[in-house]
Amino acid sequence: MSHFEVIASDPHCGARRGVLTTAHGPVQTPAFMPVGTAGTVKGLTPDQIEATGAGIVLANTYHLMLRPGAEVVERVGGLHRFMAWDRPILTDSGGYQVFSLSALTRIDDEGVEFASHVDGAKVHLNAEIATNIQNRLGADVIMCFDECTPFPAEPERLEKAVARTIAWARRCRQAHRRDGQLLFGIVQGGIDLALRSHCAEEIVRIGFDGYAIGGLSVGEGHEHMVRTVEHTAALLPADRPRYLMGVGMPADIVAAVRAGVDMFDCVLPTRNGRNAFAFTRQGPLRLRNSVHIDSTEPIEDGCDCYACRNFTRGAIRHFFNCSEMLGPILLTVHNLRFYQRLMAEIRLQIEQGGFDCWAATALARDDSVR
Amino acid sequence: MSHFEVIASDPHCGARRGVLTTAHGPVQTPAFMPVGTAGTVKGLTPDQIEATGAGIVLANTYHLMLRPGAEVVERVGGLHRFMAWDRPILTDSGGYQVFSLSALTRIDDEGVEFASHVDGAKVHLNAEIATNIQNRLGADVIMCFDECTPFPAEPERLEKAVARTIAWARRCRQAHRRDGQLLFGIVQGGIDLALRSHCAEEIVRIGFDGYAIGGLSVGEGHEHMVRTVEHTAALLPADRPRYLMGVGMPADIVAAVRAGVDMFDCVLPTRNGRNAFAFTRQGPLRLRNSVHIDSTEPIEDGCDCYACRNFTRGAIRHFFNCSEMLGPILLTVHNLRFYQRLMAEIRLQIEQGGFDCWAATALARDDSVR
């Protein structure tokens, strides 16, 4: 049996309903992964994360390699024990953060050298090191080390990054040493569809357990993003999971599922939650607004999350107003539950064969996915 | 049936095991109340607080009157609904904070005027206002407005404060308007035992549902504190609950229970938890210490709290090191559970008749109560 099984497909678009089997159990796809950067989804305990319906979480190799270090995580028994999360985990490769958070001091075909954002220490990272670190962290799914380009990028810069991403993917495949740990390749190429085709072809030729589309949601906008995802997803093997990295808003997710994407991660529900921004089916809600002072309404009518079942908007606004941790905690719980309810609805619609129609309506009309 | 029932007493000391009946259910005493200053025990959801074993929490009138205001709490359905805490709540009167947090602009026999610590606004507070605010907040137990003196205080200052505390207690009793809400009187007098006797006599003469000992744990030290509590508790009616305000360390609590005290509140378990300090039976633990980097031990061996059941010291140290909210959350959970386990042990020892012996041993030997 393969580690990925498509159990239903929408006849009118690329959407599929699947199950990804990992060393820590199955993941129902399309799936959204909350981001647990430093080994914790900010503000939540694992049982609170589980209660939102999340079946898999993401942790950042870049952050964990700097603090506490892969060897420390390994010594205490691996990432699952460290995070107290007994279900599937995916680690990224650190590539994205090296290019977005660090002062780069060198980049060449071999790898990169950068100054840690924590203490400025010079750190070396390349395909072999990133793979070895992820082997030691012990997530269920690990990612190839890739070169991420900003948007917009010069054509030569993009081409060079794609060439390196392909070469590094080959090296990651070679360096991968841990049984039972799935390794995903990453397709880069900005919004250049020809480059995406070339990169996809080469990455698929190397052969991975799954395929990611990287380098999007970096400022190109919804239309370019969707066009690139539609183009790229169609080039990836139907029998392997497809993961759109770092995306995104609910509308982005619905559009990408339509194009055949199975997995997502994004900081929006958690980061926005900490900033008093709530996702609701009736559109965004800013909980610091004084209009909520004595509101007895829940954040979102009909939501079954712990915050909505127990707290009024008035109380949550007060917690933010007083800088009480409970404000960010409750909105993080709600936003993650909102995303998981969206994914559950998507999965149900695909199973029932009505996804394409539902998605078109949702994208055209519903504030909640915009 | 009275609202307070003593169900067991230790034959060798003043310790008693009781049940305080409130509008939101019974409280098993001796009881420790976690402090939920602004309507939230910092960092925890109500279900996490409940899981520590807490049967009653405290909220601060001073903070809630300034933000969001008693009228807002009242409009959204009262403090229980606001905090999403369906069990007993006690509010203090604001007296202590007026004297410790504010810039006082006037104090006389009528009441006080102070500058809010939030925005500097001039606020007026007196016996009638403090009682009315607490009536509107709707806690199960409310406190008289009293004058708190610093330590040390001049004899005339202390005498004046005691006289005002007595006069204000009489006015609070008169102003109290809410059925089903218990009103406790407060005995002041610093460490002057004669003044404590005088104050206790007058406060008992007015007659309240319970009696508090205020003005301690302000720098007088363990010995003075215990001497004053032993002296004062003995002067209070045996058929009413006794509450030692703002105390304290485990050793203070054990000594005060021995003197016949039934209720406690203190910020130590929560505040220390946020500062990476854990209470354990083996003594204090500072989780920022690098000695814990790759420790696979729980905070405290044998502890049944969520943090100890799921996380290693190494992971918790990492969360503090990265300023992740999960560090303070987990140590708050642990410390509150530590306090509740202490109270459960105290209650059991009294029930079994062995409290005095247990307490003497604990006070003499055990790091965990020091």
Automatic annotation (TrEMBL), chains A, B:
The keyword Ligase does not apply. It comes from the Bacteria. Its cofactor is Zn(2+). Coiled coil: none annotated. Zn(2+) binds at residues 303, 305, 308, 334. The keyword Repeat does not apply. It catalyses: 7-aminomethyl-7-carbaguanine + guanosine(34) in tRNA = 7-aminomethyl-7-carbaguanosine(34) in tRNA + guanine. InterPro entries: ArchSynthase1/Queuine_TRR (IPR050076), TGT (IPR004803), TGT-like_sf (IPR036511), tRNA_ribo_trans-like (IPR002616). Substrate binds at residues 92-96, 146, 188, 215. Pathway: tRNA modification; tRNA-queuosine biosynthesis. It is an enzyme of class 2 (transferase). One of its GO terms (biological process) is tRNA queuosine(34) biosynthetic process. Its EC number is 2.4.2.29. One of its GO terms (cellular component) is cytosol. The active site is at residues 92, 265. Residues 246-252, 270-274 are annotated as: RNA binding. Binds 1 zinc ion per subunit. SUPFAM superfamilies: tRNA-guanine transglycosylase (SSF51713). One of its GO terms (molecular function) is metal ion binding. Residues 14-362 form the tRNA-guanine(15) transglycosylase-like domain. Keywords: Glycosyltransferase, Metal-binding, Queuosine biosynthesis, Transferase, tRNA processing, Zinc. Belongs to the queuine tRNA-ribosyltransferase family. Catalyzes the base-exchange of a guanine (G) residue with the queuine precursor 7-aminomethyl-7-deazaguanine (PreQ1) at position 34 (anticodon wobble position) in tRNAs with GU(N) anticodons (tRNA-Asp, -Asn, -His and -Tyr). Catalysis occurs through a double-displacement mechanism. The nucleophile active site attacks the C1' of nucleotide 34 to detach the guanine base from the RNA, forming a covalent enzyme-RNA intermediate. The proton acceptor active site deprotonates the incoming PreQ1, allowing a nucleophilic attack on the C1' of the ribose to form the product. PANTHER family: QUEUINE TRNA-RIBOSYLTRANSFERASE. Homodimer. Within each dimer, one monomer is responsible for RNA recognition and catalysis, while the other monomer binds to the replacement base PreQ1. This is Queuine tRNA-ribosyltransferase. It comes from Anaerobaca lacustris.
